Structures are given as structure tokens and as C-alpha cells.
Amino acid sequence: MQQGKTGLFTARTLLLATCISSAALLAGCSEDKAEAPQQKPAAAAPQPSAVDAEKAKREAEAAAKAKAAAEAAAPKVTVLPNPGPAPEGTQFFEIDQGNNAVFVSEALRNGPLDLPVLKRSLTSTYGQDPELDKLRKDVNSNDRFVARDANAAFDAGIGAFVEKYKGITYVRVDVADQPGLTVLKPYDFDKLGFPVDASTLLAGGDERGWLTPAENHRLLFKNGQDIAFFPIPDEKVARELEARVRKSFNGGLKLVVYGYIHSYIEAPADASYAQPWRGLDIQAQRVDLVDAKDEKRVFATLNL
Predict the structure, then answer these.
(1) Burial class of 149 by CB neighbour count within 10 A (0 to 12, 13 to 18, 19+)
(2) CA distances from 218 to 51, 208, 215 (A)
(3) Least confident of 61-65, 121-125, 184-188, 230-234
(4) What is the mean pLDDT of residues 268-273?
(5) Is residue 304 domain-shared with residue 203, that is, in the same domain?
(6) Phi and psi at residue 195, in whole multiples of 5°?
């Protein structure tokens, strides 16, 4: 009987222990759940104050104005199609005085003709248009009726005259010895050739001579910096050229630059040019060093 009570006590004890253990486990689980970190919602981004918003607006407006000013100050360049090497027998249009550059520029420019500029530039058509030459003189007549009629006819005539310059692609430009500008510098024995004295002019860094055309039209060379040196290894030829160089602008030498019109430029006044200007940028393809009195006598050629 005693043994039965003991077994019952033991069973009850085990049951009670099991319940206590289970309760402890459940309690532990509850504590674990309670201690787990709660995920907090993300804090809202701080809203800019009215002062910050106004500052950002002013900065954006200043940047826009600066961009517009930079665009207005930058030259507007119209690049023309590259025609490639000049075909054999090409007739090169010679830009031999400032007026020609003005007429070619006006023919390339989009928009109405600048009649006042053309009137001032046209000193003569050099026999190309005798009727226009007569009208040009009549424009300045003391007879006000003659001048009025001539002005009206001249405006129509100059438009037709400029039309003749449209479609010009290949051009030639001569750069000859002149006071203050020789074509070549003295012979360089190390390089066996002659540096080009006009290289600064051709590169656009100097505007001596007629290469600054009339009415704020400029004539530039896109690759003028490449026209800088003529190799002359033949000592006999070099001696003759050296003797001519020593005569300064009386040496009778000339550079004949052949190329095509690369682009047309319209630019505002800037640090290097005090007034708004238009210009032609010539891509040189070949340069001949010739005798100014006999172009068929070519001393050297640069192919660019």
C-alpha cells in the first residue's frame, strides 16, 4: 500500500514538473516576443524652408542667364558640306580683295541681304556688271531724282549680283610679299627649309594687309597653323630663295593657297575684335610657293 502511494506521488510530481517546465517555456517565448525590436516607420524627409526654396530659385535663374549670355557671346558657325579634294581642272574662285569676301559671305548667309553693307562694299564690279557699276555711281548723284531712282534699281541689281556668288565652293587666296610682311623667313639649316613668315597671319593671329576684308568681314584659315614650313632640300633653289628673302618685300615671292569654304561665321564683338563681324573660314588643301611674276614657276608645294 505504501508503495502505491509512493508511485502516485512520483507521477504527480513528474506531472507538476512538466507543467512548470511548459509554463516556463511559454513565459520565455512571451518574453522573447516582447523584447524583439519594433520596426519604426521611416522619418519623413525634412521639407525645405521658404528661404532655401527662394535661394535655389535664384541660383537656377542665375545659371540660366549665364548660359544664355555664353550662347549669345559665342560665334555662330555654319559648317558647310566637305566637298573633298578638288577635282582635276577645278576653277578656283579667287578672293583677291575684301569686297569678294563680303559678297561670298552674303551669298552664304541665311536671311535678307544686308543692303547697306553691300552698297558700301561695292566700289566696283571690275567689269563683271557694267550696269551695276553705273547705278553705284548714280546713287551718289547730286540730282536727288537720279539718286532716288538709282537706289531703287541698285537694291534689285545688287541682289541679282550676289546671286552669282552662290554655289562657290573652291577658292584661292594669294599671300604675297608686302611692306611689313615677307612670305618666308631666312633658311633653317637644321630643318633644310624655310619657315613661313606669314604663318601668324594665316593662323588668324595677325590681321595685316587686305586679309581683313571690308565692312567687318574677316577671312580666316581653318588650318592656317599648318602652313608654317616649306622643306627645300635642293641647295640651288634654297640659295635663290634666300637671296630673295633678304630683299624683304621686294623678293617677289607669293603663296597661293587653294582650298574650299569650310564654314561661315557670325560673331559678336569680343576682346580681339571690337565690332560684330562675319567671316569665311577657308580649309586649305594645297599651298604653292611661287614666283609672284610667274606663277608657273613653283618652288615648292605643301599638300595639306
Answers:
(1) middle
(2) 50, 12, 9
(3) 121-125
(4) 76
(5) yes
(6) -65, 150
> Do 185 and 173 belong together in one domain?
yes
The yes-or-no verdict on residue 20 having pLDDT over 50 is: no
* Per-residue DSSP letter, 213: -
Q: Based on the fold, state whether residues 183 and 240 are members of the same structural domain.
A: yes
Range of the domain at 138: 98-168
Which of 168, 183, 208 finishes a domain?
A: 168
Question: What is the overall mean pLDDT for the chain?
Answer: 78
Element (H, E) at 289: strand 277-291
- Alpha carbon distance 253, 256 (integer Å): 10
- Whole-model pTM over 0.85: no
Whether 92 contacts 174, CB under 8 Å: no
Query: Residue 16 — very low, low, confident or very high, per pLDDT cuts 50/70/90?
Result: very low
The predicted pLDDT at position 83 comes to: 93
User: How far apart are the C-alpha atoms of 224 and 304, rounded to whole Å?
Assistant: 10
What is the model's pLDDT at position 11?
45
- DSSP for 151-209 reads HHHHHHHHHHHHHTTTT--EEEEEEE-BTTB-SBPSPBTTTTEEEBTTHHHHTTS---G
Residues near 99 by beta carbon (within 8 Å), at least 6 away in sequence: 121, 122, 123, 213, 214
Q: Are both 301 and 184 inside the same structural domain? A: yes
Q: Report yes or no on 212 lying in a domain.
A: yes
Looking at 153, 168, 183, the residue that finishes a domain is 168
C-alpha cell at 274: 571690337
Task: Report d(CA 229, CA 250) in Å as an integer.
Answer: 20
Q: Tell me whether residue 47 is in a domain.
A: no
Cell of 179: 611692306
Q: Which range, of 13-22, 38-47, 99-108, 167-176, averages the lowest pLDDT?
A: 13-22
Whether residue 143 lies inside any domain: the answer is yes
Q: Identify whether 149 is part of a domain.
A: yes
Parallel, antiparallel, or unpaired: how do β-strands 277-291 and 294-303 relate?
A: antiparallel
